[in-house]
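Quick one, T. Sequence first:
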Amino acid sequence: MKIHVKKNDKVMVVSGKDKGKVSEVVAVLPKVGKVLVRDVNMVKKHKKPSKTNMQGGIIETEAPIFSSKVMLYCDKCKAVTRIAKKITEDGTKVRVCKKCDTVL
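Structure tokens:
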């Protein structure tokens, strides 16, 4: 499955309980069509004590969300946007904001 965002992209959540949050993509899971976004879809996990975590307890962590629930966020426009692909003078292909033509 092809996903429209990459790791370290700035995205905005467009639906769900965290709608409107702007954060960056931590990981992309293309086999299941999901992305892991920093401080979005926080869940609580109960961890048993172990050698690495002596105390154990309830730990809050991010859970993956579907990639269709996020859109790329342009810092210059301060809005969500779709991307266009352009080829620069030196022959590299770059992703560009459709609204303001800045390189993402």
